[in-house]
Amino acid sequence: MSDNADKETIPQVEIPEKVEITPARVVVTEKAPIPQNDNVAHALAGAGGGLLSMVLTYPLITLSTRAQVESKKAESKFSEAVGNIIAREGISGLYSGINSALFGISITNFVYYYWYEWTRTFFEKAAAKAGRAGAKLTTVESMIAGAIAGSATVIITNPIWVVNTRVTTRQQEKKKDDVEAGAEAKPSKPPSTIGTLLQLLKNEGPQALFAGVIPALVLVINPILQYTLFEQLKNTVEKRRKVTPTIAFFLGALGKLFATAITYPYITVKSQMHVQSEGKKEGSFAALRRIVSESGYSGLYRGIGPKVTQSVLTAALLFAFKDVLYEQTVRLRMAGAARRRVAA
Description:
Keywords: Membrane, Mitochondrion, Mitochondrion inner membrane, Peroxisome, Repeat, Transmembrane, Transmembrane helix, Transport
Number of domains: 1
Transmembrane segments: 40-63, 94-115, 207-225, 246-267
Family: Belongs to the mitochondrial carrier (TC 2.A.29) family.
Number of strands: 2
Protein name: Peroxisomal membrane protein PMP47B
Shape: globular
Low-confidence stretches: 4-19, 71-75
CATH architecture: Alpha/alpha barrel
Strand order of the largest sheet: 1-2
InterPro entries: MCP_dom_sf, MCP_transmembrane, Mito/Peroxisomal_Carrier
């Protein structure tokens, strides 16, 4: 048989990544499909994506949080709200509390993605044993995975978000006190995260760190809805084409928009419970009734403009960043493991 005939009959297959290990170096000669079952890599990528998206959208969080907790009607125009905060506090006012927010989002996303991917792997193994190898998560399985991951995340990170909300709103309260006392209006230094934490523990005790935890657990429905819709849309797209960061951006935006629109009233309740001081505690349903009584049903949606914009952008950027960061994280972990084998 001729050489040409041999070439025609040999099937063309994708050459897997080949790693050449020598005492001096590790050489990666070709790319291979990235394994998708590395829980730690998913967690690290989620944390990194959360950090990047939070930095880009944090001013919108400041505006939304203040609109939710102020007793007066929220400023209606976004540009006016930004201008007023800058006039009172300087540019730094838009980033009040960002230290605790960055710490919180990194921990939140790390915990969430670790447990979400752990649950996903569990379901995939169960599907393989049942003869459904390679099957994607069903809608119910996606919702269960989101519930488990979301509940674990809330319990671990609620104290961080309580402190963050206090830092964000204390600056506004301090400025109002200065104005009422006749003090000259000028930019003031935002309260520190550590200082706020110590003051909270001193005045209200450790239990204050878990203010609003029940509404937060109820709000686990938000990531359940978000990730379920995202996963199902992603599965549909993957049947036709590869999911690029751009596609992930828009799918993430749709998922978050849907989830936030449904759960926003309870987000308002949770924010108000975070800033209640000792002696003014009330249950989540009592807070819900009070808000409706004082401000009408529109009060439940106070600050929704900046919040929806921020939430959708944050989620979209997170999903766009995460896949890229995941691939890089896995490659770094694989290279590190190879180097350790060489050194052993």
